[in-house]
Structures are given as structure tokens and as C-alpha cells.
């Protein structure tokens, strides 16, 4: 098991993992699937902006990823980040989510970030529990802000001070 920076060669596998989550779960409210080309550009854009996109591997195969970005636009939010972390089912319970989180948190901290947010679907109870276990505190619950699968869903905002 290892954690490393994503490369353009990882984009098809990351798209596969992410699109499965988009199609089958309420873990993200998005229904727009990712493309390898778009992801490769995202890797480059993040690097140019001083951010990172990390992948987790088992036996040389990418099984998860994490990245972060500015929480909201504008200079007043420049030190506040938000992240995305997604694992393939076979990667759950192996410590890779924690390792990915530690990697992006350290990268964000080194870049001057003050805090980092997780926006977690309230229907994703495992995601809420995971974030609590790695030191995130629930700071808000936004009612019916996401719409997917024909229903409204709540968003749990969780924050960790870096």
C-alpha cells in the first residue's frame, strides 16, 4: 500500500472510481461524470495553484484518491480549504483513507491553510463517521441543499483546524 502524487496515467482509473460513486451513491450530489482528460487537466491546475491530488495504491493499482481546493472563491477564503476523498470498495478498512487525508492535510498546512472542510452527504453515514474519527467536527447541517435520485438531501459540513 502506498500514497503518491497522481499522474496523468492515473486519470482513467480515478475516473472509473469516481464515476462509480457518482452513478451509484449519494456520497456526492453531482451527476456529472469525470473524464480522464478533465482529470489530467485538474491535476495540472492543482499543481499550478500549489495544491495536490494524491492517489492510494494496492499492489500497483490505484484504489482511491484525495485532493483539496479553496473552500470558496475570493481572497478572504485563501487559507480555508475543502477536500474530496474517495476509495474503491476493496480499499475500505485498510487505513488508506486516513493516509490520504493525512497527506492532503499536511500539504495544505505547508501551503499556509488554516482549516479544511468536508462537505458530506447526510445519507453517507460512513463518511460522517470517518471524518469524525480523523478529527473533523460537525459545524453545520444544511437542509435539503442537494438533489439527486429524485430526492432532496442534507449536507453535513465538517471542519478541522490545521
From TrEMBL:
Pfam families documented for this protein: Acetyltransf_1 (PF00583)
GO MF, any single term: acyltransferase activity, transferring groups other than amino-acyl groups
Domain of life according to the entry: Bacteria
Every N-acetyltransferase domain range: 1-162
Keywords noted in UniProt: Acyltransferase, Transferase
PANTHER family in the cross-refs: N-ACETYLTRANSFERASE (PTHR43072), UPF0039 PROTEIN C11D3.02C (PTHR43072:SF23)
Record's protein name: Phosphinothricin acetyltransferase
Amino acid at each position: 500500500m502506498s500514497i503518491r502524487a497522481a499522474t496523468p496515467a492515473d486519470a482513467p482509473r480515478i475516473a472509473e472510481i469516481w464515476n462509480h460513486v457518482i452513478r451509484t451513491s449519494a456520497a456526492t450530489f453531482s451527476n456529472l461524470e469525470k473524464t480522464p482528460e478533465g482529470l489530467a487537466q485538474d491535476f495540472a491546475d492543482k499543481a499550478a495553484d500549489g495544491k495536490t491530488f494524491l492517489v492510494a495504491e494496492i499492489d500497483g493499482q490505484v484504489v482511491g484518491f484525495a485532493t483539496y481546493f479553496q473552500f470558496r472563491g475570493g481572497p478572504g477564503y485563501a487559507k480555508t480549504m475543502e477536500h474530496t476523498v474517495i476509495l474503491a470498495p476493496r480499499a475500505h478498512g485498510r487505513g488508506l483513507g486516513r493516509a490520504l487525508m493525512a497527506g492532503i492535510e499536511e500539504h495544505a498546512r505547508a501551503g499556509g491553510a488554516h482549516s479544511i472542510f468536508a462537505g458530506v452527504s447526510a445519507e453517507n453515514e460512513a463518511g460522517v463517521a470517518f471524518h469524525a474519527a480523523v478529527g473533523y467536527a460537525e459545524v453545520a447541517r444544511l437542509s435539503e441543499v442537494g438533489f439527486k435520485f429524485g430526492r432532496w438531501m442534507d449536507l453535513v459540513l465538517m471542519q478541522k483546524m490545521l
